[in-house]
Amino acid sequence: MDSALRYIHNDSDLSTNSSFSPDEERRSKVQDVVPQALLDQYLSMTDPSRAQTVDTEIAKHCAYSLPGVALTLGRQNWHCLRETYETLASDMQWKVRRTLAFSIHELAVILGDQLTAADLVPIFNGFLKDLDEVRIGVLKHLHDFLKLLHIDKRREYLYQLQEFLVTDNSRNWRFRAELAEQLILLLELYSPRDVYDYLRPIALNLCADKVSSVRWISYKLVSEMVKKLHMATPPTFGVDLINELVENFGRCPKWSGRQAFVFVCQTVIEDDCLPMDQFAVHLMPHLLTLANDRVPNVRVLLAKTLRQTLLEKEYFLTSAGCHQEAVEQTIVALQMDRDSDVKYFASIHPASTKISDDAMSTASSTY
């Protein structure tokens, strides 16, 4: 194992020439890390006849073990495994391809950036167009794989992220939830311009998903996006995103869209995605107008957000400006609301209930 680990850190250039004569091909699979007979036995697991005579799942077992074999042999012996890996990646059984898809990011760490770009990226691209059962493997570790690529190669995948919104089964909401989780991680890998141009449309789409669990993760995604874009210089993209949130959700004809706007504002406040003085300028005026919303569920969530989240921020506890006065006037109006639930949440002490529990219950029970 010490030997294998030393090989992994060896950055020497390796030939990727695959046009061998039969003798050269046999020699190409010779190494001195493990007994050659053991490696030959492992490589023979992809032989179709073995599936008929030994075990129908033998190719899947071979795929499962491949990263461990690659780690043991070291990247300088990858030529021994390359052909076997390509054979498994095109196996007729989707379970074999799925196994490889779930571990391709680990193999990329073992092989390094040069071999990954040459041998793994084409297979990764094939998995992206495969069945959902295979695609979920690369999606769950999308950030782990893309961060290992050169920035130019990584940018090529920006154009393909939109394709993850399309699934074989539209009811496969967990696929979209995983996409939202991965996009949160991917924010650090791309520039503000790329985030605004490519990730923003996907995030806003997910915020309007039919399934509340997907929307809930997407609110976190959008709030983190607001944070990244606001911190950029100049913060133009951040302001544009906020204006789009106001237009598409804060003024949405559907009450669920307006409720989504309150959720996003709540998350922005809780996670300190904007300085409170900037929040007071860009988002709060539009948030407070929802005190007159015709749907009680929107006003209930607004009351919770103001009482349990906004008023816990020091900016609104210590300042005595027009922003604090506007919040206090809104809360007084909500305390006199015709709906008993709105009155209750506008009147209670901020510490009397957990906001995360209330928000999740509202998300699941109201729409």
TrEMBL record:
Keywords: Repeat. Gene3D superfamilies: Leucine-rich Repeat Variant (1.25.10.10). The keyword Protease does not apply. It comes from Leptonychotes weddellii (Weddell seal). The gene is LOC102740713. Residues 9-28 are annotated as: Disordered. One of its GO terms (cellular component) is cytoplasm. This is Serine/threonine-protein phosphatase 4 regulatory subunit 1. One of its GO terms (molecular function) is protein phosphatase regulator activity.
